[in-house]
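Please produce the structure of this protein holding 1,3-dihydroxyacetonephosphate.
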Amino acid sequence: MNLEALNKVAEAMVAPGRGILAADESTGTIKKRFDAINVENTEANRRDYREFMFRHKDGMKHISGVILFDETIWQDAADGTPLVKLIEAANSIPGIKVDEGTEALPGTKGDVITKGLDGLSKRLPKYYERGARFAKWRAVIDIGAGVPSHNTIHANAHALARYAALCQEHQIVPIVEPEVLMDGDHDIQTCYDITTWTLKETFQELYYANVALEGMVLKPNMIVPGKKCAKQASVDEVAAMTIKCLTNCVPSAVPGIAYLSGGQSDEDATAHLNRMNEIGGFPWKMTFSYGRALQAAPQKAWSGKKENVPAGQKAFEHRAEMNGLASLGKWRPDLEKKAA
Ligand code: 13P
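Below is the modeled complex.
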């Protein structure tokens, strides 16, 4: 393992003014997104959709790296250029989702465990050869009646650490993503407590697995109340509690934090990131690694029609630019009005 080189990639992933585009929806998840805009979930449509974002230089200038699904990393653009080459041409880094989704964790009241460790050491060199310089593994922690259990927090943290160690051995920067879901009716303090527990356990397991923190990026949820909680939180509250949680849990050797959006509205995800960077005072870069909060608008504008590609690209550029500004603490709500 060349830690200096891993660290260089990790720093580039969280470079000020840029963040990560999570375009790694599995075929099943992109179907849900396409269903919402009446687009058939074919391989060609998935390719065309992703291709128009990767080709759009004005959007990609705010994107430090792109997380791809296995199908996409092997796909070529309509003109035969590998999609990874389009990403590299935009001075962005290709990455790959390597987990294989979740399954029920036996003996719990509904917890899940992330799969994908079997055979991972054989898959990683192939992805590296194709151009991937970072990877992603997502652990999912739900909050609800009787969940999460100690077993799920521990087993998921352990799997994340084993994945991260394997990635570094193959010269790939691991994005470590323990996501505490915002689906329930829990309050913001509960999200804070469960996220704290999850992050403490995750860094303990990373330590046992000899993962070099300088060569990874953390992708956590922000501290927010559940979507169904009657008491929603202000931007200031989310920013303050997220910073407090992370400063209590994340060692300063980690180069950067790239948040998931997790079902927040596009503008909330931007406003929260921006406020944290306005406050500052923490040891890491803080940026975005958004899926839905970057892509909902371009998907809607495109709606599967060739003639709408420029509108889709404009919508992608706008959200990427807004989040790029938020990574610097320089976003303002009135800038949203300049949208296409
Ligand atoms: P969201 O921003 O839509 O939560 O997606 C990010 C991601 O990569 C989840 O694994």
